[in-house]
Amino acid sequence: MTDPPFRPPYPGYDVLAKWDSPSWNDATRRVVRDRLTRVPERQFFSEGEWAVLEAICDRLVPQPERAHPIPIAPWIDHRLRSGRSSGTRYADLPPPGPLWRQTLAGIDAEARLMAGGAFTALDAAGRDAVLRAVQQGHTHTGCWQGLPPARAFLQILGEVVEVYYAHPDAWSETGFGGPASPRGYARLDPGRVDPWEAQ
């Protein structure tokens, strides 16, 4: 099974056209430049964990239309290595690092039980079936050890999506004008856009 072709809702819109406009100052340009050019190397995850993570990201946010997919795994690895987080967590979940490690191990174990092979060896449909089972809490291995699989899945899904939409390519895809520093946004009512936003 292949994913349907992606059709961007704002063809031709490129948020980077704002680079030299009053919308962005030097600090904003520096952050955007780093996001585009300084993709972190793997430091937190093992090679095996990294492979499972990349395979999960590929199914949660497929990017077959992109010649250069938005990097997701490197920024998750970087967050965990640097200890950065939102500062909150559910009482029934471990801290971010152990949560990710246990969830990746659990997903791989479920794949081996359900399909007889590593998660990374499955095709798209097989990976989706494993992720759907975890999402619904239908797990059967001992890897979870008190970690609620459905809750863990929601946590990693949220972080994968958050990292994806922190990238300028995703801003262009959604018509988002990017950071509004220093100019800010003025027309905040429904159906109204500022002149520099995608129509």
Topology:
Elements: H1 26-37, H2 47-60, H3 73-82, H4 96-115, H5 124-135, H6 149-164, H7 168-174
Helix pairs in contact: 4-5, 4-6
Keywords:
199 residues, mainly alpha, 7 helices, 0% strand
Any idea what the shape is? elongated
Radius of gyration: 19 Å
Outline the biggest β-sheet: none
Strand and helix order = HHHHHHH
**Total of DSSP H or I helical runs spanning 4+ residues:** 7
* Average pLDDT taken over every residue: 91
- Which strand-content bin applies to the residues? under 5%
Q: What structural class is derived from the secondary structure elements?
A: mainly alpha
Overall description:
It is elongated, with a radius of gyration of 19 Å. The chain has seven helices and no strands. With 199 residues, the chain is mainly α. The protein has a domain at 46-166. The chain has helices at 26-37, 47-60, 73-82, 96-115, 124-135, 149-164, 168-174. It starts with 25 loop residues before the first helix and ends in a 25-residue tail after the last helix.
